Amino acid sequence: MRTTVGIIGAGPAGLLLARLLHRAGIDSVVLESRDRAYVEHRHRAGILEQGTVDVLRAAGAGERMDREGLRHDGIELRFARRRHRIDFPALTGGRSVMVYAQTEVCKDLIALQLTEGGPLLFEAQALAVEDAADGRPRIPFRHRGRADVLECDYAVGCDGFWGVARRAFPAALSRVFERTYPYAWLGVLADVAPSHDELVYARHDRGFALLSMRSPSVSRLYLQVPADTDAGRWSEPEIWDELERRLETDDGWRLARGPLTQKSVTPMRSFVHEPMRHGRLFLAGDAAHIVPPTGAKGLNLAVGDVVTLAHALAHEKETGSSDLLDAYSATCLRRVWQAERFSCDMTTLLHSAPDATPFDVRLQQARLERIASSRAAETDLAEAYTGFPLGRRQISAR
Ligand SMILES: Cc1cc2nc3c(=O)[nH]c(=O)nc-3n(C[C@H](O)[C@H](O)[C@H](O)COP(=O)(O)OP(=O)(O)OC[C@H]3O[C@@H](n4cnc5c(N)ncnc54)[C@H](O)[C@@H]3O)c2cc1C
């Protein structure tokens, strides 16, 4: 097989990149190791920044999102049994976020790709990326048991944290920056209407809790648990009791319970691989960086990367200049490190570290009080949460 851009991975990064390239008249082939049903039902992120919403609309992939997604104008912080609302539009000049599950973003992009775009091969596992440094990249892969090779002008690793693309970077070039956290998130989906109309981030001495949602009838809830937790050890009543304790307030707020339909543990990690380009191989999304989910940034960062890359490839096609491709890694990393900073800040602001001293706990409370009492501190949080804007030219050019 031969194409202009060989894309490994059909998560949000790979699917959106293929869509943006298609709109720019650039051929691509997407290789995805899993089957379609698996990709469409993998529960992960659900908060889309304003910039992500704008990009999906401009790519012609926003119709169902606009019909079924829930626009959110704020979040609530809970601590010391009190609530404090952060009003996004008031603090950011009108910005908001959209609650629309990653599973739905992927379903919409897959449907568009299969009807309008280039080849998207499921059950096609890339084995390596070869010759990316000094020639046309080759991607050997296995498709439903049969060996093949994808030859391309550019290869893009959108294959997540465990993918193969990053391994093609020479050790002498790669720099890894990493932090692991001594806790994880036990996440559940529940068939019950959310008990609050906006996300609630709760700091509690017993640990962090998050009340989120996927639709008006499905709640998504998380509990901070120790890093090595087995989800199967938590019973339904135990999960609800613990959520209730951590989310409780003094004003009589009640948590509605319902049947749990999914339960999993997500590890917390900060990770950045630099650079994000080696010759004709580019990394995008989780293949290059991971954030702890507290700041809701993972999916949005992946979108930022592929918007930047699609714009650079279109620019090269139109002008013959590789300037923007050459700047790809540095351009993305500026945004990535802002998201890393924010995700780490939110995580340490709200979680109980097992080795926290009483001094650390008082500092955490003081940081929360500061946000609740200072418009400047609130604005800083609101700007980062709703997302640092993508270049207008990058969005509209697609
Ligand atoms: C368990 C989990 C829970 C998460 N929860 C949240 C959350 O609650 N909130 C939040 O904001 N973010 C969350 N995230 C982060 C967010 O979902 C990711 O940042 C986002 O999925 C990144 O998209 P991506 O396309 O870069 O990578 P992925 O979505 O990981 O997609 C990579 C794709 O590449 C495929 N692939 C891998 N190797 C190969 C290969 N060799 N050949 C072919 N295909 C390959 C994979 O099957 C996958 O489909 C979560 C992530 C994980 C892992």
UniProtKB/TrEMBL annotation:
<dbReference type="InterPro" id="IPR002938">
    <property type="entry name" value="FAD-bd"/>
</dbReference>
<dbReference type="GO" id="GO:0071949">
    <property type="term" value="F:FAD binding"/>
</dbReference>
<dbReference type="InterPro" id="IPR036188">
    <property type="entry name" value="FAD/NAD-bd_sf"/>
</dbReference>
<dbReference type="Pfam" id="PF01494">
    <property type="entry name" value="FAD_binding_3"/>
</dbReference>
<feature type="domain" description="FAD-binding">
    <location>
        <begin position="2"/>
        <end position="343"/>
    </location>
</feature>
<protein>
    <submittedName>
        <fullName>4-hydroxybenzoate 3-monooxygenase</fullName>
    </submittedName>
</protein>
<dbReference type="InterPro" id="IPR050641">
    <property type="entry name" value="RIFMO-like"/>
</dbReference>
<keyword id="KW-0274">FAD</keyword>
<keyword id="KW-0285">Flavoprotein</keyword>
<dbReference type="GO" id="GO:0016709">
    <property type="term" value="F:oxidoreductase activity, acting on paired donors, with incorporation or reduction of molecular oxygen, NAD(P)H as one donor, and incorporation of one atom of oxygen"/>
</dbReference>
